[in-house]
Amino acid sequence: MSILEVLRDPNTQWILLGTLLLGLSSGVIGSFAYLRKQSLLGDTLAHAALPGICIAFILTGVKSISFFLFGAAIAGMIAVFFISVLTKYSRIKQDSALGIVLSSFFGLGIVLLTQIQQSSYGNQSGLDKFLFGQTASMVMTDVYVMMGVSLVLILACTLFFKEFKLLSFDPGFAKGIGLPVLLLDYIIMLLIVGAVVTGIQAVGVVLMAALLITPAVSARYWTERLHVMVILSGVFGMVSGISGTLLSATVNNLPTGPLIVLSATGWFVLSLLFAPNRGVVAKLWRRGDTKRKYELMRKLQKQGVHRYE
Questions:
Q1: Which residues contact 210 (CB under 8 A, 6 or more apart)?
Q2: φ/ψ of residue 252, rounded to 5
């Protein structure tokens, strides 16, 4: 199937719009998570969403995306609460707290998912698709939810850009000038929860963290300015969503979520190799140029000594 034929399909158009918005918003908020060294936070919140989805199904008995997203959001906020308690009231560092919460919540989610699949419920088939995403099942209402959450994420990052910038680079100074550091920290976590919750249907709980962090890491190679990095990260995420969706639609039996993540990884490899200042090729070129200049200088020095003698 050609790309033009794919673009004429109304269902594909909605899916394309949804993944585009998902990649854009995930890239923007993921930049601050990456700069604050909270890359594992997105992975933790994505895995913590699974028990929320399962509990929402157990309580309602129906497969409703709205209920699933609500349950995932509640589970994500509970995970944030446990992470905060562990880091504040114990000697456990944040990376260890993230690992504990991730494994605990995901283990609980797998147990609940197995219990649901072995039960007599009639609607449980396909619930495990949230592990790796189920983009093909997205409908217009799902895209509306993604659009609303994406706009909220982008608007929040725009309004609190200066505060998030200070919090990312110098939280001590931010606290010293009177900024509510703890509140801002919770706001960033809630924004990450929002991005994760809206993305689990398309990408899945296992791969959602990659869509949060990979565009941000790719953008970091191209610039030293935060606002440019945030914009580039959003663009990389958006292009990854578009390319992964189109590739999945043109080639049969290929999952959309993993292709989106692979597209983001492709941009990372491109950035790693060819970024103008931080890229591998640029570093090798500078090293070779420095070596050539050094050899030329030594050669000229030797020639000068010979003329003097």
A1: 203, 261, 264, 265
A2: -70, 150
User: Would you give the DSSP letter of residue 89?
Assistant: S
Give the residue among 181, 185, 186, 206 at the shortest CA–CA distance from 196. Answer: 206
Q: Tens digit of pLDDT for each residue in 145-185?
A: 888 888 889 999 999 999 999 998 888 888 899 889 888 98
Q: Is the pLDDT of residue 254 over 60?
A: yes
Cβ atoms of 231 and 24 within 8 Å: the answer is: no
Q: What are the structural domains of the chain?
A: 3-278 (1.10.3470.10)
Which of 4-8, 178-182, 195-199, 240-244 has the weakest average pLDDT?
4-8
Quick one: which of 6, 307, 27, 15 has its CA closest to 136?
15
| Angle made by CA atoms 263, 267, 269, in degrees to the nearest 5 | 110
Specify the pTM: 0.85
Residue whose C-alpha is closest to residue 54's, from 2, 1, 131, 120: 131
Residue type, 152: V
Residue 96 has pLDDT above 80, yes or no: yes
Cβ–Cβ < 8 Å for 135, 65 = no
Do residues 200 and 152 touch, judged by C-beta distance below 8 A? Answer: no
Amino acid at 266: G
Tokens of 218: 């790719």
State the Cα torsion 87-93-96-97 to the nearest 10°: 10
CB 23 within 8 A of CB 232: no
Scan for tokens 């939810």, then name that residue: 145
Helix axis angle for 226-250 and 256-274, nearest 10°, is 130
The answer to whether the CB of 242 falls within 8 A of the CB of 19 is: yes
Cα–Cα dist 199/134, whole Å: 10
